[in-house]
Write a structure and sequence with these properties.
Blueprint: H1 2-14, H2 29-32, H3 40-51, E1 54-59, E2 62-67, H4 70-78, H5 93-96, H6 105-115, H7 121-125, H8 128-143, E3 152-153, H9 154-171, H10 184-201, H11 208-214, H12 216-249, H13 259-265, H14 270-276, E4 278-279, E5 282-283, H15 286-317, H16 319-333, H17 343-348, H18 350-362, E6 369-372, E7 377-379, E8 382-384, E9 389-392, H19 394-397, H20 441-458, E10 459-462, E11 470-473, E12 475-478, E13 483-488
Parallel strand pairs: 2-9
Antiparallel strand pairs: 1-2, 3-13, 4-5, 6-9, 7-8, 10-13, 11-12
The structure holds protoporphyrin IX containing FE.
Protoporphyrin IX containing FE is lined by residues 100-101, 112, 295-296, 299-300, 303-304, 307, 365-366, 369, 430-432, 436, 438-440, 443-444.
Length: 491
């Protein structure tokens, strides 16, 4: 253990990378013993102050190199050599299998190629109607609470709306979570997210056998609930497969149809596009498809919930930004707040895009990402030994004063290309960048624009309730909830 660590520390030292004093066996466990979900960002900032924008940490015998300098972030994210995810992602495998988020190597390459057309703009365009319908349900529910004086924790409300959206777009089924938050599928998903979130921050639960041993009840509960989710998804896949095969038999679909052709004829769920795809002539099995569908459910639910909640919160706290947004919405959509939005309308909401980007900068839903270096890696003058994890803490990069003027201030105008400062693209990566960037980025932008503009058309957002206090729970959330007030808007 001593020599293993020394050898790697020596390599890093030559690249001027240091870190806390390393102890045999435990590594830097003492340094990390007080890190919690709530103080993780402050602890990382403190380490950045002490050891610089690139430093290393030993978690027992696992080396992590933390990279916050854009010069090297570009090298990490753009590299084709390090597309393997770090070992932390293994916690997700019982649930997601080896879908796009957790797979690597040839499997990831093949799947990424197959799945890319799934997010074709023709497919996304037909989802606008779903975004609109589900945000209408959200708005209807909110009218009951919109008295202009009661603080509302918007997070759980947005979470149910985002769940309805992702279930219908990914699987083509309506679970109506907003109307029935207690149905089995919704409850099972909440349990799974909670237990996995806890595992991420509890080092002793990271390894499967230790988790089974030290948290038996959670282990059993996790697996029972994963079974419920998988059973539900399997049944949906089988039904859609049967329907598709029937359609192919009676000629409603032609085998040679492109995604674009089919999407224009009939609304397709992401799952249908996967059913139509084939790898070297052989279609994806139900199990392959399940891996990807549950991955969409995971990657597309909490992320958009977190983002939309913080966006609404920030707008409620910045009345001038709200006024500008309303002016833009009126300009693009007129005064009829029930008018349905089109793809083109959403493209025209340019200031809204700046607001969303600025909210993602201050509260990135995915606060950090990790890769595993499988062979010695050289990025410019930085040498990283094989076996190390590399992590990029977006949360800190996005608030780094070297990359942003007044980094803690909410200033959407900084993203206006006409007046804003020039931002290094690798200092703004809430959707990551390079080969493993977010495949759902455009989907997410449309969903956020659609839902946020719907809320704004119906309500004035008021600065009520406590300030947010961020914490990292796989996803960035607020331990105080995300509160605001709502008052029906008069046009
Ligand atoms: C605001 C919303 C979202 C944010 C901030 C976000 C952010 C990210 C980030 C940072 C990654 C890279 C993760 C890593 O390297 O570990 C990622 C990957 C991914 N995202 Fe998103 N995401 C969002 C919404 C979505 C949506 C709506 C979907 C699907 C419908 C989606 C599907 C995926 C998938 C499948 C990957 C893995 C891609 C790969 O490794 O090839 N995301 N996302």
């Amino acid at each position: 253990d001593y020599f293993y660590k020394k050898e790697r520390d020596d390599i890093l030292r030559k690249s001027n990378v240091s870190g806390p004093k390393t102890f045999p066996i435990i590594g830097n466990a003492l340094e990390m013993r007080n890190v919690t979900t709530e103080n993780v960002f402050e602890c990382s900032l403190e380490r950045k102050r002490k050891y610089g924008k690139i430093h290393r940490l030993w978690s027992l015998n696992q080396l992590s190199v933390i990279v916050m300098d854009v010069k090297y972030i570009e090298g990490v994210l753009s590299s084709q050599q390090i597309i393997k995810k770090s070992s932390f992602y293994d916690i997700l495998v019982d649930w997601l299998g080896r879908g796009l988020v957790t797979s690597s190597g040839k499997k990831w390459h093949t799947r990424r190629r197959i799945i890319t057309p799934t997010f074709h703009f023709k497919i996304l365009e037909q989802f606008i109607e779903i975004f609109d319908q589900q945000s209408t349900v959200l708005v209807k529910k909110m009218y009951n609470k919109a008295d202009g004086k009661t603080p509302i924790n918007i997070y759980p409300e947005v979470s149910l709306a985002a769940l309805d959206i992702i279930t219908e777009t990914a699987m083509g089924v309506k679970v109506s979570a907003q109307e029935n938050p207690n149905i089995e599928y919704v409850r099972a998903l909440a349990h799974v997210c909670k237990i996995i979130g806890k595992r991420f921050i509890t080092p002793i639960q990271r390894l499967n056998w230790l988790f089974r041993l030290t948290a038996r009840r959670d282990y059993l509960k996790l697996h029972d609930n994963i079974n419920i989710l998988h059973k539900f998804t399997d049944e949906v896949i089988q039904k859609r497969r049967d329907a598709l095969e029937k359609a192919l038999r009676d000629g409603t679909y032609e085998k040679s149809s492109t995604v674009e052709d089919v999407a224009t004829k009939k609304r397709m769920a992401l799952l249908d596009v996967l059913l139509l795809s084939s790898v070297n002539g052989s279609p994806l099995s139900n199990e392959d498809i399940r891996e990807e569908v549950v991955t969409f459910m995971f990657a597309g639910h909490d992320t958009t919930t977190s983002a939309m909640s913080f966006i609404l919160y920030l707008i409620s706290r910045y009345p001038l930004v709200q006024e500008k947004l309303i002016a833009e919405i009126q300009n693009v959509l007129g005064n009829d707040n029930n008018k349905s939005l089109t793809y083109n309308n959403l493209q025209e909401l340019k200031y809204m895009e700046c607001v969303i980007k600025e909210a993602l900068r201050l509260y990135p839903p995915v606060a950090s990402i990790g890769r595993q270096v499988t062979e010695d890696l050289v990025i410019e003058d930085l040498n990283i030994p094989a076996g190390a994890n590399v992590s990029v803490p977006f949360y800190l990069v996005l608030r780094d004063p070297d990359y942003y003027d007044e980094p803690d201030i909410f200033k959407p105008e900084r993203f206006d290309s006409a007046v804003g400062q020039k931002i290094n693209p690798f200092a703004f990566t809430p959707f990551s960048a390079g080969p493993r960037n977010c495949i759902g980025k455009k989907f997410a932008m449309l969903e956020m624009k659609s839902t946020v503009s719907k809320m704004l058309r119906h309500f004035e957002l008021l600065p009520l309730g406590p300030q947010v206090r961020t914490a990292s729970h796989i996803i960035t959330l607020s331990v105080t909830g995300v509160h605001l007030g709502l008052k029906p808007r008069e046009w």
